[in-house]
Structures are given as structure tokens and as C-alpha cells.
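Hey, sorry to bother you again with one of my protein questions. I've been puzzling over a protein and I'd love to understand its fold better. Take your time with it, there's no hurry, and the full record follows here:
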Amino acid sequence: MKKILLALFVQLFILQSASAVLRIEITKGVEGAAPIAIIPFVVKGNIPVNVSDVVTSDLQRSGKFAPLEKQKLLATPTTPEQVNYKLWRVAGVDHVVIGEVSEVSPGQYDTVFRLLDVFKGKQVLGYQFRDTAKTLRSRAHEISDLIYEKITGQKGAFDTYIAYITVERKVGMQPRYKLQVADTDGYNPQTVLTSSQPIMSPSWSPDGTRLAYVSFEDKRSEIYIQNLATRQREKIALSRGINGSPAWSPDGTQLAIAMSKGSGNPDIYLLSLASRKLTQLTRNWGIDTEPAWMPDGKSLVFTSSRSGKPKIYRKSVSGGQAKRLTFEGDYNANAQISPNGESMAFVNGSGNVFRIAIMDLATGYTQVLTDGKLDESPSFAPNGSMILYATQDGQRGVLAAVSSDGRFKQKLVLSEGDVREPTWAPFKNNAH
């Protein structure tokens, strides 16, 4: 079912593509990244995507691999029989990737790849795929995922999506806001919504087919859910006052929302998407906002000012007292939980400096991962290996990513306008 929905996403989501693509710059590499040789794939016919270049770029930006530059390749074998394992072993290369892409008929392409373990002296992975021009780039990302998982033991997250907000400002004109979805390397950007009023807080459904977000198009904050395949959207929060920070429950049946229900301070509410029943979860004189679910769906974390300054608390959805989780810094907000539920990324601020930190939820140990002055909106990759966030590059808003151990960093820059509020989609095979 998921494959069908993704095909619909590609074929039916015929909204105007963004004119600009995110450009990725690696700003901090990792010493000891595993050397790997990705031999340029043999190309037979008119192939619209350079598959081996996509795989090379994917593995390099993971921070775990150091692909050899083309001009430094010791040899360019195209079959397993041509691989001189001793040569690569002496050079300190752990793995070699070879492949071929062939045009089997107009618009139809076959891709074959093989992963060879240099020290074992044999092939350890190999697949053959058939694709169209529309699916070939996604297939290249899938190949990267297969290689990544085989070597690291962790599922890859290259063949997924990210969503983000862009803002274009021109002199004498109203700002132009866009909600966009793109591949994780910034390619194939698609515009979900364009507005002259702010768009905020995009949130992926667990199956990756819908986005919830806040729009001010009617001059007030309202929450919408939009189906990416059908383009249908529905307004789901209509109360007076603040309606913000939608967060999907892990089973996709509820949204946690920050709502003021008029002129009061925001509290956290749970909205059943089937019955539209609204249940108030927090009730406090302070501001409670930015809910995020634990993976088991039994509790939430959220930002609250109840202690006088923004801090992060955790509360069971069945009730009871909220437990304070953060104590370091003047400002702790915008928490996101890792897919395995063991870590929490959040914004840690002191003075006028705001950075992304990560906390081990079992021990409370906290590490600041970034070094910007205005870092915000952290979002975990679905495999937990990277954290995507928004930051400043001069006077512009850009996206950046940092490995969950802080050792690898990269920046994603849009050629025009500001980028903000990124959110990483779940794995494509989450839906059934």
C-alpha cells in the first residue's frame, strides 16, 4: 500500500516545483570515516540520473563513509572478477561498489549494483532493479540505504523526504511563504502550499502520506491536515485563540495541539482525528506548548514556562503530574524524541545564544551539538543518526544537520530566500 501511495505522491502531486534546490555543504567531517570506493557505474543508453554519483554523495553526507575521489581510484573494475582485492586491501579501502545502468526500452532502466567486502574478498550484497525516469533517483537513494545498512547494521535514511518552510521577501511586496517537500539531498522540491501569510510547524503523519501544519491565511492561527497524494486538505482546529504545534501520535489516530481556547494561556490538548473529541492534557497558569510524543504513545514531552522560564516536561497521556526533564541553561524548548525513545533533542539557550542539544533520557546527560547563535527546530532522521535543524548563515535562514554524536555537520543552503522549521519524514515503508 505504501508503494502505491508514494507513486501517487510522485504522479498526482502536480504542484509547482520550487525553482531552487538546497545545496549541501559539509562543514565538519569525521576522522576515521570508513574508506569506500564507488566505481562509476557502467552506463548503457541515455540515462537521466548518474546513479553512482548519487550514491557517493549520500554515503559521504552520512559522515560514516569517506568515498574516494574519482581521480584517486586505484582501478575501475566493472565486474567482480576484475576486482583485485589485494590492491584495495593494501590501500586501506574497506569496500568497493560496482554497478551498471542500462536503458532497456524508452523510459525503462535496469540498475545492477554489487557491494564487495575487500577483507573478505567477496561480494556481500547485490541487487537488480527496474525503474522509470521518475523513480530512478529514488532508487539510487535506496541503493545507498542498502549499502549503509549492510555495513553499519543501521537502517539507512537517504530514500526519505524532508519538509520545510521557505520565506521570500522582496522590496515593496508581501513576504511569500511556502511549505515544501523535497528529497533528503534537496532534490525534487515540491510546493505543498503558498501563502502571503505565515505557515508554521509542519508535522509528518506516521505513514508519511500527510502533513499537519499551522496557517495564518485567515489572519489567525489554524491547523490543517493535507494529503500529499490527493492534495486535499482539511481544517481541524477551529477554536478561538491560539491553535499551534500539531504533533501526530505514533499510531496516527490523534494530534497533540497547543491551544489557548480564547484569551487564556496555551495548554496541551489531544484531538481524536476519528471523533474530533478534544481532551485537555495540561492545565497550568504558564504557557504549555510544542508537544512531542514518546514512541510508545503513552506520554508526551512539551515546553512549559511554569517554572518561570521555558523548560521541558514530560507527562503521561493518562494524566498525573508533569515531570521536569531539563535544568541546564536559561531556555529549553522545542523537544523532539529519537525514534528509539532513548534521546531527546531540544533547543538550549543562554543569553542570546540558542543551540541544539541532546539528552540521554535514562541518565539526563546533556551534550550541546551545534555552535550557531540561533539554532532551532530540531528533527531526527528516522534512523536517529542525524538531527536536521534551522540556523542562521549571515542574515539568512538555512538548514543544517548534525550527527547525533556531534561529530559530523553539514549545511543546506537555498539559493533564494530563507529556510526554516525543517521536519524529517518517516521511513517510506512505515505505511501498510
The longest helix spans residues 136-152. The chain is about 10% helix and 45% strand. Residues 314 and 358 are 16 Å apart (CA to CA). Residues 1-19 have pLDDT under 50 and may be disordered.
